[in-house]
Amino acid sequence: MKWINKAIIDLRAKPSTRSERVSQALFGTTVKVCRTKDDWSLVETPDGYQGFVKTKHLSVPLSPVGSAWKVTEAIVPVRDPATDQVLMQFAFDTGFFAENDGDRLVFGLPTGEIGYVPDTFATPARSVSDMETLLQLACGFVGTPYLWGGVSPFGFDCSGFVQRLFHHCFNEWLPRDTAALRQIGQQITLENLRQGDLCFFPGHVALCLNRGRVVHANSHQYGVSVDKLLEPTDAYGEQLLQGFEVARRIAFSPSFGRTE
Fold first, then answer.
1. Is 60 exceeded by the pLDDT of residue 163?
2. Catalytic annotation on 158?
């Protein structure tokens, strides 16, 4: 097993920087190395997704020191405790081990440097939220750029947006792709939608809000947006309603088991 040593890296379909970005992984993510050739490694992330990364972006995991935390803000600078110089940036939901030092969380980096983030920007890694919190977080990302394969506030795609929110709030990995997402949970009709349901369209997934709205990362609006699905008031809303295929409601069990 290896460890991602950069703030965020792209997983590529082939061992080339010109190849399609299929997903991303955040700092500290533990990955399984499937094979290595030249300066590329094929890795598998905790959600079972595979892609090629530069081998130099993998390190032997550091021995855990302190408690496990996860980032709660969109993007947080990691600073040197002595100079306050910014060493790198952590994205939302980045996991790390750190020791409390007053109002700072202090930890080692793979470079051998020591970094810290304010303790107000993180929460214990195993803390669990509720659906209301998840949807509040989702709406807080409105305006975040759309990025194919993106899983962070630097840029989300539709399924990466959903997966990251559920992982942060419930410590569970949903499938990475839209096609796999629509195979979990309970099927729901358009008339019975409620907050937190996943709404599916051709090659696309969105989160249901109240009053017939959805929040989603989409290329049409060039980022995360809130749009009206029921009783739409614009052309894009009409397009969403006409393209609606199915909704799924996830039961929060350890397996997120299939129901159909």
1. yes
2. yes
